[in-house]
Every structure is written in C-alpha cells, then in structure tokens.
Amino acid sequence: MRLGIVASGLLCLVACHSSPSGGSHARAEWKSLFDGKTTAGWVAWGGRYDGNARWTIEDGALTGRQGLNQEGGLIYTEGFYSNFEFEVDVKCDYPFDSGIFLRMVPDEKGAQVTIDYRPNGEIGAIYSDGFLQHNLDGGKLFQKDEWNHFKVVCTGRDLAIDAWLNGEKLASYRMEPGSSGYAPSGRIGLQVHGGENVPLETKVQFKNMRVKELPVADEPITIELAGGEQVLSHRALLDGWRPLFDGKTLEGWEVNGPAEGVEVKGGAIVISSGHGELRSKGDYRDFELCADFQLSKLCNSGVFLRAERSDANPAFSGCEVQVLDDYNWESASGSKLADYQFTGGLYGSVAPAVKGALKLAPEWNTYRIRFEGSRIRTELNGALLYDVDTTTVHVPADTKPFAERAKSGFIGLQRHGAAKDGEATFVAYKNLFVKKL
After folding, report:
1. What is the CATH number of the domain that holds 101?
2. Which residues form the domain of 347?
3. 158-192: per-residue pLDDT in tens?
C-alpha cells in the first residue's frame, strides 16, 4: 500500500532449520498466557461453547467452577492460534469434568482434549461434538489431588493432536484428510462442564500456562521434546505445495529497488527500509499462497499477486493484499483509511469483512490466499476476509479493471522507506508456500 508513512527497522526472529527427517525444527519462543494474578489475556466469550461458569484467581491459579445454576462454560485466550504447542498444569477436584479446547471459534468446530475426572470419564480422549477418539486408560496417568502437567501439540490443516500427561504420551490423533467444518485457527479454551449432582464449590485450577506457535503450512514439522522424543506432523509436501523461501537465503527472489534494507534473519525475510518489492523469480497464474508475516507498529507493506515484470505499479498491474498497522496508522498519520486499506483488503477494491484479527509484533499472522481465474479468496489467521469474483468489484478510476490486468505474474513482498518520526518499523515474512492449481 502506498500511503505517506514509510518503513524502517529490524528484529531478531525465530529460526527454523532443516532436520534429518526433511522437516523443520520449531524454534519459536514460548509465550506466557497467565500472570498468576489476573485474567488479563483471557475472555469468557467468543468460542463455540460459551457459558456462565465462574472464573476466579485463587492461590495463583486460574480457578473455574460451575455457575450458580450449574451452568458450564469456557474461558478462552484472546489470541488465535493455528499450529502450536500448549502447556498447562491442572489440578482437579473429584468428580469434575474439564478439558483443553483447541482452535475455538463460534461457527466452526475445534477439538477438545478431555479432562473428564468422573466415574466412567475419560482423560485424554479427543472430542468435537462427539468422540473422535476414546481414551479409556488415560486416567491412569492422572494424579489425584496433585498438579498434573499437560502438553498438547496441535498442527495441520487436517487436524493433528498429540498430548502428554506428566511426561507420558497420552493421545495421538490424526483427522482424515479433507475433513470439513473444522476451523484452521482459533482460541485455546479451558472448560468447566456444567451438570447436576456436582457440588457447586467443586473446582478445576490451571497455572503455568504457555504457548509456542509453530509454522503454519503443510510442510513436515519436527518438534523436539524433552528426552529426545520427536513428533513429525502428519502432513508432508503433498498436493503440490512448494516453498517460495528456504529460510536461509533470498534464492528464488529478485530485489526491485535498493539492495539495502532486505535481509534474511532468524529464518525470515526482514524488510526494514527501501522502496519497491521483492519479486518471486517464478510467475504464477492460478495458485494458493500460504505466508506468515510479522509487522511492527506503523508498518506498511503488502503482498502482490500476478504482478507484471515492468515499471507499472504492481498493485494494479496485478493486485495487492494489504499489510498495514491498522491500529495506529490513522492516529499517527492524521489520515482516514479507506475500508480496503486495512490489513487483508484487496487494495483499491474490497474491504476485509473481519477486523481485529491482525496481531502486531511479536505475534505472527498467517495469510492463506487462493487466486483462481477471476476469483480471489483471502483468510487472515483463519478468518475469511472475502471470496469474490474480481470482474465484479470496484477499481479506482485511473486503473485497469481486473479483466484487463495480467493473467500471470510474480508474487511480491512490498517494501517502503524510512522511519516515521524516528520510530523504526519493519515487516517480516516466513513460511512462504505456494501451490499451483
């Protein structure tokens, strides 16, 4: 997007390097989800199973009980997560039914690792509007009246769940490829299950909660665990997905503009100054693109698609999916953004249907974009922003209609120039994968 504030800055990012198995090691940083004192970073609504459970902080633990009318409910992370590791310590009264919920959104299904600590209950079953996988022996690993440590690894477009309890393997589940109705991203939730014959003061407690985001793409992901154990995600480079970025060099890219201000750092392409764009050496016509991006305050960038290899503005010789600091731009620049200028907008034409899904650094975001014929579909962090026929959309008066634009062209990463008011800015991209259709 070409506005008035331009970009500068750099950062140290996560490293992903090749493993002997042909996958990549997840080297992201752990993020604490609980300060031990407040529910900051947590919300009681916004998933699939909202309710009126009671949530308090007691003895440094997030504590859940049924509502006064024996209602259940969940408490969710404010943030959305796609591929991740999650760890938590759990202490549960008996009898009580709880669980760890993954990828929770209102209108699509996620999944649950059950903590059903009741007669005939199952600990470590996988549940989603019905059992996906039972676990009749998981309760043998659960220590009564003690803190129990859970680790859950969630990966894949087709959901894969691995779980450990107190250091022992608890569950491993792989969803059938192509299963529909499941959210690719969502909140992490913790449950209080409502029901009769359970005393109202019975409780479940959670502490030491943390999350580590993993690459969001269909490449093999090898995760190293304590004791040398490894888990390889269930999806490989199937169905034609290929990397656009090797995580180490700019091989496969051309820098249009000054060479300075673009570097590979910590397994990501970091753009901290300059103008122009990075161009893929290959041209693409019909394709899907998966890309993770991180942006600083006042960042201004974008992803170009089907752009001409000429001096024409790639946002209009092809098109641009916007990348911008939605939260601070207007106040810093004193300008008013057009609706299509917010992150995810099809620049000049289509506004994102969802706002608020964007995360600023140090968080990462994920685009999934499908461009086939005249139709383009864009998702941001699992939220659908639009799915439109480009021949029917508005374009600025001084630009070509989509029907007259390039039918094939490069994929580009936009760069902008110097800092604004002395504040360094940057954008970073990693996990760039493309699949020709």
Report:
1. 2.60.120.560
2. 241-436
3. 889 999 999 999 999 999 877 888 988 889 999 99
